Amino acid sequence: MGSWLAWASSDRMGKIWSMEGAGPREVVAVSGHTAPVDRVRFHPSDPNLLLTTAQDRTVRLWDLRGGSQHLLGRWDLQSPAQYGSCPASVEWHGSHHIVVAERNDCIHVYDTRKARGGSRTAYKSFDLKPNLVEGCQVSPNGEYLVATTTLRGEGMGELRIWPLESETVDDAYVYPGHTGPIYQFCFSPDGTLLATGGSDAIVGLWDTKHMVCTQTITRRTKFVRSVSFSHDSQLLANSTEEDGIDIAGRSGEWLGTLYLQPNKRGGAEEICFHPKKAHMLACARDTDAHSGSLPTSPVTVVKW
Would you state the pLDDT for residue 99? Predict the structure, then answer.
């Protein structure tokens, strides 16, 4: 785990690079999508399995063994085309399930084992209307679905939590969290903390045992694009389109700022810590907000 780095590419491919040896090198270019790839997600325990989503309205599962690609499954978005070309989010749940949140505010849970036999039917589906869904994933204990929502017509960003095995979301627990939509959230690897990033430029730190927001990070002025915990749950990074990546301790205290370019300009679209090694951070860079020019590299890997 952690020897490969994947990123989504506008040339309709998912690029896989090896981070071992003398230097980074491309090992696989996953092709098959008919539009730009929007998101990539490695399996939580099998580095040979990769999920990709693209603007062709599909989610695909690939087997990368042997440095090649083999399509194991494909799921077409169920929402009408008017709701966009990509899902709001796609995340793994355990070894065999994926959670897809669509832009029509519906969430579907699929069994990837059935896809290999040709089935593309969700075994669980939830309609969260009239709430707008920004993303969804499964709680660390595997028992609950956690979605970030905003009530249509109102601005408050909420966490909505309900049992995975339930049939409806009628009895969901609702936790107001931000004054605007919650665009990103993630659990710490030890399961004790939840970080939320909102359009209000605030990062919230939640105690998952009591579901109470215990700390807020207010050092940013623009909406939070990505949040990520280090493998040991001791560091929390967040990024916006502002310069640099904010690094905090698990209580939210500021530890420093990582800059991705020599001129210290430019933010990051998405950030992710290495799953094992000491605080390595892969950052998909945004364009330079000051000059409007493209960055020299789409991905930067740094060590804190």
Answer: 98
